[in-house]
Amino acid sequence: MKCPDCDHELRPLDYKGIQIDECAYCRGRWFDRDELTQAKDRTDDDLRWLDFDPFGQDADENKKPSRGKQCPRCSLSMDAIAYDHSKVTIDRCPRCLGVWLDHNEFERIIKYLENALSGKSVREYAALTFREFVRIFTGHEGVASEVKDFLAVLKLLELRITVEHPGLIRAYQRIYAIAPFR
Q: Is residue 2 part of a domain?
């Protein structure tokens, strides 16, 4: 495959157990279908429940003018979209469902998602925890994956409570210290 930016050969790259392709010259990366989500999940486990499908209905709302790039896999003209509601523009192929990221765009996506996590309140995390609990029974990823998503959000809820309400944690620690059972 050839790089859609500089026409150099793409080389296989193992990214945390996922085989992606990278241009050694411009450092752009090609992700086959679902590899971008897998790479995000393996980069930061806390982000695993934040799902954005570049080919889903939400993605069509984020369309941008095409940048004229050709898909390295099937040579079709790729669409440009904003990743979720970020300022990161990615290129996607509507035929083979692959995604092209320019140099540092993957890192910018991770940073955007981490910032999205830190901006949520206890109330928002409580609602998201309930939503992820329901998805254990109704989600499309499979029970094991949905349980992992639920546990990730539950952990973030606990951390947010710790940050927003440190007095509750101190009270809990005092009760635990005098409890007859441990």
A: no
- Single-letter amino acid code for the residue at 28: G
Separation between Cα atoms, residue 107 and residue 101, nearest integer Å: 10
Whole-prediction pTM value? 0.83
Please state whether beta strands 99-101 and 89-92 pair in parallel, antiparallel, or not at all (unpaired): antiparallel
Whose CA is closest to 102, among 75, 80, 84, 74? 80
Q: Are residues 109 and 50 in the same domain?
A: yes
Distance (Å) of CA 8 to CA 12, 15, 40, 118 = 13, 20, 25, 38
Q: What is the pLDDT of residues 75-133, one digit of tens each?
A: 999 999 999 989 999 999 999 999 999 999 999 999 999 999 988 999 999 999 999 99
Q: In terms of residue numbers, what domain contains 88?
A: 10-118
Indicate the helix (H) or strand (E) that contains 64: strand 63-64
Q: Cα–Cα distance between 159 and 45 in angstroms, integer?
A: 15
Assign 20 to helix, strand or coil: strand
Do both 112 and 23 map to the same domain?
yes
pLDDT in tens, 17-31: 999 999 999 999 999
